[in-house]
Amino acid sequence: MTITDTSSPSLVESIEEIRALGARYNYAVDEGTPEEWAATFSKDGVFHALIPGQTPRGHAELAAFVPLCRATFGAMRHLTMNELIEVDGDTATQTAYLLFFAENNGVVDGTVCVYEDELVREDGAWKFADRKVRPAMPFTKLVAPAA
User: Fold this and answer.
1) Domains and CATH numbers, the chain
2) 144 pLDDT band (50/70/90 cuts)?
3) Which of 29, 57, 122, 145 has the fewest Cβ atoms within 10 Å of its own Cβ atom?
């Protein structure tokens, strides 16, 4: 099934649950809450990070990744959009754009990235089983306004 087939309420519910999962993921990493961020992944979930050599797998490694991510990038904001979601029973795939902003020492960097996701319904909730992120287009660096 694809997002264009909205005749089934369960399909629509699954798509909305997957979108909400993405929002929880974004807020958790941006706010620096490792346990909440790791909880968006399945028990053996894996994240293919932009930080070289970082592919955390499983709850403990994923939770430990959040402080490293914040130390590497500084204050962050993740904005996802244009989700293409296909649901097949208790599995799904998603492709989405990510607008990624990071502020470090008063300079804001931005990059358009693409997420490629495999999801599973685990214990009744959608989770990321495998999440890949790749940069697609960097923005110009901006200097943050003085407070």
Assistant:
1) 9-143 (3.10.450.50)
2) low
3) 145
**Global confidence as pTM:** 0.87
Which long-range contacts link 129-134 to residues 24+ away (Cβ below 8 Å)? 129/41, 129/42, 129/44, 129/45, 129/46, 129/91, 130/45, 130/46, 130/48, 131/41, 131/45, 131/46, 131/47, 131/48, 132/48, 133/47, 133/48, 133/49, 133/50, 133/98, 134/50
The tens digit of pLDDT for each residue in 90-127 reads: 999 999 999 999 988 888 889 999 999 999 999 999 99
Residue type, 32: G
